[in-house]
């Protein structure tokens, strides 16, 4: 699975990159259900939806 995190705004790094990455990693390491890559952010949804159509 590929996850897209929005690192375009340094002032929102924790909210947009650090916390989502920690949540994904924690779920992976604990054998929990991984979130859909599209659910991580609106940018991820947009990019992955566009790739899926092609």
UniProtKB/TrEMBL annotation:
Name used for this protein in its record: Uncharacterized protein
Entries under InterPro entries matching the protein: P-loop_NTPase
Tell me the organism: Puccinia graminis f. sp. tritici (strain CRL 75-36-700-3 / race SCCL) (Black stem rust fungus)
